[in-house]
Amino acid sequence: MRILLTGGAGFIGTQVARQLAEAGHEVLRLDSLHPAAHGTPPAPPEDPALVVGDVRDADTVAAALRGVDAVVHHAAMVGMGLDLADLPEYVGCNDLGTAVLLAQMARASVGLLVLASSMVVYGEGAYDCPVHGPVRPEARDPSDLAAGRFEPRCPGCGRPLAPGLVDESAPMDPRSGYAATKVAQEHLASVWARTAGGRAIALRYHNVYGPGMPRDTPYAGVAAIFRSALERGAPPKVFEDGAQRRDFVHVEDVARANVLALDRLATVDSGRLVRYNIASGRPHTVGDMAAALAAAFGGPEPVVTGQFRAGDVRHVVASPDRAREELGFQARVPFADGMAAFATARLRG
């Protein structure tokens, strides 16, 4: 198939483009080289398969869609950002950009879509109360966080909660501006599928890491922030107490999930969006990750700061069962091996 890959020059997009090409697809990449992902980008490479342009520009998108069979949509601002001043750019890049893309896909009769979504749509993960069973915790109180009380409590009785695995049926409950834009992307894709008779898959990435992550930017995952600190000779600064649980999945595995999702689209019902967690199924704490990177890099050791950020959640750990059963996806890169290689891998920017 001929594939339009938006965000195709970014951290994940670069790996997706390579694996799509290896699978026999013809790939056209569209990327704005946004400074949040690329720093001060170099002059665009002489690559006929790369179009430098903004997904918010209808004419650019319409031209890029000519002769295309499917779209793999990664163009987005990611990460927590700095503060609410970033919100218009997040909404513009992520939601307006997606709306323009979907409108042009409908006009061009391109009916297959793989959307890069995120675990952030869940907010907090899955929890159980010993009294009330499965519950959705409320947003954590800043006064609790300031006092070092980081674990969510049952909204009914106040007891500590036990974290579990969140699956794709969990309600979406965004806790940050970025998360809200990813929820909106999924809703827009679902509306497009129903209205245009398209077939769509949303891949909810968990904490993606690996070579090519951007250097020294707040618009990046925690792995890139820690790795950038180590490269500067500074210790990784771990927020809260470091016991936040996440699922770290290597970018090579994420790219392979995109190839599998394209194959799966042929069997998705017309008018439907299907969602998949893309995760390793082997959770680790943020403190574990910082320690593994620092050890492989040769120090300095992480510092647990007790600091916190509004919009951060405590535990998000996914069930990978649906992706394994329906996509045939299973992460292959072990945490220890992936972190050891990432500790000395090239960063971009």
Explain the overall architecture.
It is a single chain. With 349 residues, the chain is an alpha/beta fold. 35% of the residues lie in helices and 18% in strands. It has eleven helices and 16 strands. Helix 7 (222-231) runs parallel beside helix 9.
What is the rounded distance between the termini?
A: 32 Å
Alpha-beta content class: alpha/beta
Overall pLDDT metric: 95
Reading the helices and strands in chain order gives EHEHEHEHEEEHEHEEHEEEHEEHEHH
Structure characteristics:
11 helices; globular; 16 strands
Short description:
The protein is of the alpha/beta class.
Draw up the topology in text.
Elements: E1 2-6, H1 11-22, E2 26-31, H2 35-38, E3 50-52, H3 58-64, E4 70-73, H4 87-108, E5 112-118, E6 126-129, E7 133-135, H5 142-146, E8 162-164, H6 177-196, E9 199-205, E10 207-209, H7 222-231, E11 237-238, E12 245-246, E13 248-250, H8 251-265, E14 272-278, E15 284-285, H9 286-297, E16 303-304, H10 321-327, H11 335-342
Parallel strand pairs: 1-2, 1-4, 2-3, 4-5, 5-9, 9-14, 10-13, 11-16
Antiparallel strand pairs: 6-7, 6-8, 12-15
Helix pairs in contact: 1-8, 4-6, 7-9, 9-11
